[in-house]
């Protein structure tokens, strides 16, 4: 994809307004479409989850810096734990194109073709009855073809170790899709791995930025009678200067 399109203050507010009504899967695509306006939503949804998250991390860095800070509770004792991770700690793919393409594998007489999961696949499993059903459906969508002796066969004939091999190959190809980092509770010393969801951090920052901008609009509209569009069109430095004057 081309270079990211810079986001204006109006873009931030618009993303937030649209994203409020969306499921996180659609919210991620709304954010990406704002910075890659020349790429269709269908193409963005076809990105692997690792590719999608790679671009979301890059956007977070551009807008909010390299540090991701959050709060978790220790699963052993329940104590809150603040943490900060650097983007280099959660970026495992150097290039999103690393996850491109269909994978092929020959195993125990089976020839397999499969691909990493994308947003369409995750949307398809949203209403599955349980985790196992969701995993089976996701695997079935990502497994494109199973053949034996040149004849296509049902994926249901695959032995368990072949299914595991496919899962491991997919995890390696699209490594950015499942990021975990190590934490240790300072109170009880319990150690565990926490899952990292870049969209959660990015959306929290976008929401805070949008609400802050709307508060600025409220103050300046009251003080000067300007429209929201005019206020958001101001540069950050000029808006801060007018706010200082309005609050003087």
What are the key terms here?
248 residues, alpha+beta, 2 domains, four-stranded antiparallel beta sheet, two-stranded antiparallel ribbon
Topology record:
Layout: H1 9-19, H2 24-35, H3 41-45, H4 49-64, E1 67-73, E2 80-86, H5 87-90, E3 103-107, E4 110-114, H6 119-124, H7 131-142, E5 143-148, E6 151-152, H8 160-173, E7 179-184, E8 191-196, H9 198-224, H10 228-233, H11 236-247
Helix pairs in contact: 1-2, 1-9, 2-4, 4-9, 9-11
Descriptive notes:
It is built from 11 helices and 8 strands. It has 248 residues and is of the alpha+beta class. It has 2 domains: 9-94 and 180-247, no CATH class; 97-179, no CATH class. It has a 4-stranded antiparallel beta sheet with strand order 3-4-5-6. It has a two-stranded antiparallel ribbon with strand order 1-2. Strands 7-8 form a two-stranded antiparallel sheet. A hairpin with a 2-residue loop joins strand 3 and strand 4 (110-114). The protein is elongated, with a radius of gyration of 22 Å. The mean pLDDT is 94.
